[in-house]
């Protein structure tokens, strides 16, 4: 079964496209890596999937449905730097946010909710820290708080933006073990990742990204020398020249109207 | 004094969230920009009725946020600059409107806009069937405070979530903009009601200083809210008493006291952490 | 009308003083404002404007007079303490910049109102003027004030001229400046002092609340017109001075009209005007660019359709045929054909259109770019064949001759596109 489908997806900031007509499908029940160089649009892709950015064209379907219909089944783990860790909240408070629902925002959390939250905290081994203020946690612990929040949400597919940044090797292994368990329970985990070294050990499936999809498929098939040099090689000067012209001249990326050939 | 406490409580509850959202200066901008709304309401209704003023204020509050966004989006002006341009413009409009209509029926003058004076609101008493019910400003601010408290208590989850992690809230399908506007709307309403009592500038002090002191010493959101109310009470009572003794402006004194409390809290915290360190060292 | 002549002939000495005063103020604020804007510290001006208020009161109490020099010293001292305290709050606590700004701003202002009330109670005769600092009163500028403003403006300009390069570097990137061995702390101190001084001067014309507009608005407006630092200052200065003069005029012509608010309204007016008409960044010029693009796209699409039709052996090309090949709005097609004919790219005989020689060259160019880009997408960017057409449709209008050269070189002068069509040269 297909967990995620992106079709003809073009995403632009200020008219300048950073993802250019992307097309790919992801399987269910796998740990999937999205890799690519800095600024290749990985975060942008994740945000578009989560509906935080509107694409210029194309669409994304999750479990073959629009995101709005399956929001409960989709969890988002943002980049750790994206929040203010000085915020007056404890581990418990943050994980509870995973139980917040659009239409029950004004209600109190139920007993079941509380149990699910406690369970999620237990799973990431933070029970001892559950009342601690979040700024007093290490980088790895903060990351685990975010993962616990996603777990508490009870989702079937998880999108994580660089969960291994600022995390030491032991924590990294611990997180990976957790993700593996999740996968074995049939969950799908999609991770934006940086470190090429660890890619083959971590992921079942890969999307190699650089403004466009260079390759998408089982890890072994994607990790070829040719694909990597395509993604990381510096032959996109042409593309960046064009991007600056688009910005300067306000050209439409997608022509309106219909053409026959 | 009761007026100050009511306004202060309302301000400090809302201000706590402004601080956490890093949009204090937007609150500042709004508290200045509502001026034309107030003046227009005065001009059209020729009296100081609460409802038109609230509507005028809410309209200009939203207008300000939209203007700020327009500047940022259409011309890439930095956020700070966009805020600065917007509120000075609206405030200037307000002052000009006052100047245009002086001699008419408008009984607000520029001094009042800048300073406000809580003491003067005491003169404006309201009697029902001959019984003294309260001053007018108390009667208008009390329901607003009630709304603010209800908003904070019942909206706690939404406020917490959208303040902490906007993207995540959006990903859950929550309408972040609605929460934002609701908060800013309440800020502008509170700002307007505080206008004649404390003036445009010092409203911001009520919004910021007590929650800032509270934020220094706690890591818990509800405690922060409680503590900021406590700080408000202390400054309101202390400030009023001091002002009466020295015979100076009450609102200015309240904000000064609040500021001094902040400095005391801060140095207290520094001393505490230092002595803890020394303890630890001596244990070793 | 009389007013207008009287005012702009500048024969009235009061008018002269006021105008000169506002112009000097505008110049000071614009210079300093440009730097605060570039350093992304726009709201600092607002903070300083409020914070110097207690300083002015203290200066008054200590000197017992309204001597601008004492008041200025008080203002500078207070402004300084405020900024140091503000930076300390940001550095030492978890409070963020905006909270620190709001705290300093209101706390100092609160102290100021208390001092003012105290002074007023003591009933000194000269105290009446202190109010002018709050609301600003350009009309009350005296000859002596003017002299002080003049000296300060000169000093500021001298400082900027002397340290122009360093200031530029620091505004751009402090860390980098430090790595080059500049004493960043010192220059930051200098810039901050300049800000405080400029605010202390400007506040007398527009008052505490509106002061930040004098710093921010001209700089932000100028930014729409130019990228160059020296032009920024110049343009900001011009907008500032113009607004000042207009503001002074309004308050001169209309009874009971304050100068400061009108000053600010004119500043904002110029800002909004610039948002619309500024070259390149303005809304109008963007719209115009869009129209030019749309026309270009239409023309090139028509030419391309000619080529495609001819490629498939069509000889008698009329509008009917073109519309069958590619959907245009008929009216747009007519207009575009007309324009092309005018440019000598297309000729018309009765109902039949054909390409001229030049038209053929141009049509080939468009088709070539389209096919080259398709090839680039498949070869270099791993796109599948069923995707590339749409992308190339828009790219054929964007690619410049320079990029075309790069493309040709990179693809090694190919002859066939991915759909096995010939690439025309
Ligand atoms: N808000 C924005 N406005 C304009 N451009 C943006 C914005 N966010 C990102 N970009 C640009 O879009 C491109 C892709 O950015 P994105 O953050 O998606 O990259 P990334 O692959 O996540 O990079 P990294 O590995 O550094 O996290 C970059 O060139 C970036 O400069
Ligand atoms: Mg990223």
What can you see in these coordinates?
The complex is a heterotrimer of chains A (261), B (284) and C (425). Chain A has a single domain (2-40, 51-249), classed as 3-Layer(aba) Sandwich (Rossmann fold). Chain A contains 10 helices and 9 strands. Chain A has helices spanning 42-49, 67-70, 91-96, 111-123, 139-152, 169-184, 196-202, 219-222, 225-232, 237-249, and strands spanning 2-13, 16-27, 31-35, 57-62, 74-77, 157-161, 188-193, 205-210, 212-218. In chain A, helix 4 (111-123) runs antiparallel to helix 5. In chain B, 82% of the residues lie in helices and 3% in strands. Chain B has helices at 2-20, 24-33, 35-45, 50-75, 79-101, 110-114, 118-121, 136-154, 156-164, 166-171, 176-217, 221-246, 250-283; strands at 125-128, 131-135. In chain B, strands 1-2 form a two-stranded antiparallel sheet. The longest helix of chain B is centred in the last third of the chain and has 42 residues, at 176-217. Chain B is globular and about 70 Å long. With 425 residues, chain C is mostly helical. Chain C folds into 2 domains: 2-281, Orthogonal Bundle (ABC transporter involved in vitamin B12 uptake, BtuC), CATH 1.10.3470; 288-425, Arc Repressor Mutant, subunit A (Orthogonal Bundle), CATH 1.10.10. Chain C has helices spanning 2-8, 13-38, 44-63, 68-92, 97-122, 131-135, 143-172, 174-179, 184-225, 229-253, 259-277, 283-311, 319-325, 330-342, 357-381, 385-395, 401-411, and strands spanning 346-349, 352-355. A two-stranded antiparallel sheet of chain C has the order 1-2. The longest helix of chain C is centred in the middle third of the chain and has 42 residues, at 184-225. Chain C is elongated, with a radius of gyration of 32 Å. The interface between B and C is large, with 60 and 62 residues.
């Amino acid at each position: 079964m297909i967990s995620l489908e992106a079709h003809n997806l073009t995403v632009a900031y200020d008219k300048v496209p950073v993802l250019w007509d992307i097309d790919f499908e992801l399987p269910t029940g796998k740990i999937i890596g999205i890799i690519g160089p800095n600024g290749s649009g990985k975060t942008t892709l994740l945000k578009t999937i989560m509906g935080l950015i509107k694409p210029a064209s194309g669409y994304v379907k999750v479990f073959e449905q629009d995101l709005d219909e399956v929001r409960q089944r989709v969890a988002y783990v943002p980049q750790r730097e994206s929040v203010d860790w000085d915020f007056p909240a404890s581990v418990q408070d943050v994980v509870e946010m995973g139980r917040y629902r659009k239409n029950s925002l004004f209600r109190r959390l139920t007993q079941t909710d509380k149990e699910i939250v406690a369970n999620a905290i237990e799973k990431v081994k933070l029970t001892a820290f559950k009342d601690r203020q979040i700024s007093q946690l290490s980088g790895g612990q903060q990351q685990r708080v975010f993962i616990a929040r996603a777990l508490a949400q009870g989702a079937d597919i998880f999108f994580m933006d660089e969960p291994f940044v600022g995390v030491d090797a032991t924590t990294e292994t611990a997180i990976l073990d957790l993700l593996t368990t999740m996968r074995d329970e049939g969950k799908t985990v999609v991770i934006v990742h940086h470190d090429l070294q660890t890619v083959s050990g971590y992921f079942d499936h890969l999307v190699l990204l650089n403004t466009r999809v260079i390759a998408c498929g089982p890890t072994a098939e994607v990790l070829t020398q040719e694909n990597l040099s395509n993604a990381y090689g510096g032959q996109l000067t042409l593309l960046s020249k064009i991007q600056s012209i688009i910005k300067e001249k306000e050209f439409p990326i997608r022509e309106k109207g219909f053409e026959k050939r | 004094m009761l007026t100050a406490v009511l306004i202060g409580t309302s301000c400090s509850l809302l201000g706590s969230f402004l601080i956490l959202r890093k949009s204090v200066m937007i609150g500042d901008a709004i508290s200045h920009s509502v001026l034309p709304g107030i003046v227009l309401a005065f001009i059209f209704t020729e009296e100081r009725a609460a409802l038109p003023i609230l509507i005028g204020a809410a309209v200009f509050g939203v207008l300000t946020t939209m203007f700020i966004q327009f500047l940022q989006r259409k011309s890439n002006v930095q956020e700070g600059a966009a805020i600065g341009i917007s509120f000075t413009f609206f405030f200037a409009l307000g002052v000009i409107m006052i100047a245009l209509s002086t001699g008419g029926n408008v009984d607000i003058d520029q001094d009042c806009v800048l300073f406000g004076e809580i003491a003067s609101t005491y003169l404006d008493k309201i009697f029902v069937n001959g019984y003294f019910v309260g001053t007018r400003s108390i009667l208008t601010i009390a329901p607003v405070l009630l709304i603010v408290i209800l908003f904070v208590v019942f909206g706690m989850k939404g406020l917490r979530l959208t303040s902490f992690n906007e993207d995540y809230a959006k990903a859950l399908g929550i309408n972040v903009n609605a929460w934002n506007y609701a908060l800013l709307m309440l800020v502008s309403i509170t700002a307007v009601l505080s206008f004649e009592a404390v003036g445009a500038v010092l409203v911001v002090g009520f919004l910021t200083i007590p929650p800032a002191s509270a934020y220094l010493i706690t890591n818990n959101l509800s405690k922060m809210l409680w503590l900021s109310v406590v700080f408000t009470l202390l400054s309101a009572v202390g400030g009023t008493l001091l002002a009466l003794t020295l015979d100076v402006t009450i609102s200015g004194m309240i904000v000064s006291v609040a500021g001094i409390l902040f400095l005391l809290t801060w140095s207290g915290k520094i001393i505490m952490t230092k002595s803890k360190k020394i303890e630890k060292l001596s244990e070793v | 009308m009389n007013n207008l002549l009287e005012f702009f002939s500048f024969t009235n000495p009061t008018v002269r003083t006021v105008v000169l005063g506002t112009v000097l103020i505008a110049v000071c604020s614009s210079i300093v404002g440009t730097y605060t804007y570039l350093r992304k510290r726009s709201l600092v001006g607002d903070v300083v404007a409020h914070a110097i208020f207690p300083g002015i009161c203290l200066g008054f109490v200590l000197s017992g007079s309204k001597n601008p020099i004492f008041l200025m010293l008080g203002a500078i001292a207070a402004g300084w303490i405020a900024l140091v305290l503000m930076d300390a709050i940001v550095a030492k606590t978890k409070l963020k910049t905006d909270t620190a700004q709001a705290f300093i701003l209101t706390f100092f202002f609160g102290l100021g109102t208390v001092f003012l009330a105290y002074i007023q109670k003591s009933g000194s005769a000269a105290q009446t003027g202190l109010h002018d600092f709050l609301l600003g009163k350009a009309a009350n500028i005296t000859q002596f004030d003017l002299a002080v403003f003049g000296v300060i403006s000169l000093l500021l300009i001298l400082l900027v001229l002397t340290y122009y390069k360093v200031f530029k570097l620091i505004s751009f990137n402090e860390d980098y400046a430090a790595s080059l061995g500049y004493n960043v702390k010192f220059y930051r101190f200098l810039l901050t002092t300049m800000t405080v001084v400029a605010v202390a001067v400007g506040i007398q014309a527009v008052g505490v609340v509106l002061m930040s507009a004098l710093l921010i608005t001209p700089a932000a407006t100028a930014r729409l017109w130019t990228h160059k630092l020296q032009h920024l200052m110049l343009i900001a200065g011009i907008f500032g001075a113009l607004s000042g003069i207009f503001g002074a005029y309004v308050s001169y012509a209309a009874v009971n009209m304050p100068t400061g608010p009108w000053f600010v309204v004119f500043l904002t007016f110029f800002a909004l005007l610039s948002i619309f008409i500024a070259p390149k960044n303005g809304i109008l010029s963007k719209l115009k660019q869009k129209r030019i693009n749309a026309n270009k796209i239409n023309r090139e699409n028509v030419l391309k359709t000619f080529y495609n039709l001819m490629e498939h052996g069509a000889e008698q090309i009329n509008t009917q045929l073109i519309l069958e090949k590619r959907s245009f709005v008929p009216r747009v097609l007519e207009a575009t054909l007309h324009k092309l004919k005018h440019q000598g790219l297309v000729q018309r005989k009765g109902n039949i259109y054909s390409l001229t020689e030049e038209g053929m060259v141009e049509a080939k160019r468009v088709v070539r770019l389209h096919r080259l880009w398709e090839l680039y997408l498949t070869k270099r960017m791993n796109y599948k064949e069923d995707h590339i057409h749409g992308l190339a449709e828009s790219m054929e209008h964007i690619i410049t001759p320079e990029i075309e050269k790069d493309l040709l070189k990179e693809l090694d002068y190919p002859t066939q596109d991915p759909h096995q069509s010939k690439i025309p040269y």
